[in-house]
Task: structure prediction
Amino acid sequence: MRRLITLVSHSDNAPVVRAELRAIGGQYGQCGAQKPCVPNVPCPYTASLLGSAWTTDLEAGQEMYISGVTLEQSLLPAWMGCWDGDNNDGISILDVTEPDHPAYCFLRSEGVLNAHQYLNAYHRIGEYKPSLPEDRENEGPDVEEVDDDRESDTDDEGVKHALDIQDTSDLERLIWLPGKASEIKQILRDLNPFPDSGTRLLTRVLSELKENARVDLSGFQLTGAQLVQIVSGSAEIAFLDVSFNNILAVDDIPKLLEVTPTLRRLVVMGCSSVLDAHLLSLVQNEPSRFKSLEGLLHPAFLTIEKPDPYPTAFTFVN
Result:
């Protein structure tokens, strides 16, 4: 469990886990429903993290080992009920809805157990005593509530007006204020289409948020040319997330790599215009254009079930 939590919450993995969950949201029926039926492995990348945590031990001071069979053979189908298998010790539940801060619990029957309660059923380890009383009240001063919605509406209108007149200089002078850069970034993320007048402002926002080596542009509807303009000025970018961009196309990716020679990991999840067949063909036929990358995260490469490598030669009918 500890290894899985570490892997899921790692900054390289959390964006992909989040993207896989978003992609399947509302797509399938509840457990036991006939249609639409959830596939065996709806989140293959997340499943691979589970497999790595379960079968690999790289603990310091311990002998490293890898055990078990292939990942596909180890996984139970997602449509399977929690208690349908041979289970004598209960089940472990890891909630990765927020992969940056995963939560977990254990079940032996219908009751939810924390780690101490679960272990105490097997080893008498005594009563858990929290460091602070559970009923301790917050003794901090009362804070007057502020109507955040009104302020957000004003900022939203201000940003859109500045983009319309193609003058964001006043906004650029304000982004150093606490929380202002994050607020403007979210407003820009919601723009569709994204105006060319917003690229300079977005670049300044990313700089203020210290998104230099790791840049999160997920959900932004940026064209390939706009993306190139925004990231070309970064000399140290190593991680870029452009997931859920419905405008980005396969042919834009090599151009993006040309202006970011330090880029090592590119996340392209949920991009409807980045077609599997086109991307696979480009990587296969022009591999040199991707040689600087260590990881290209796209559903085309994240599949558990492998196709038969041999063509069908004959059909046997019994």
Notes: The first strand starts at residue 56 and ends at 57.
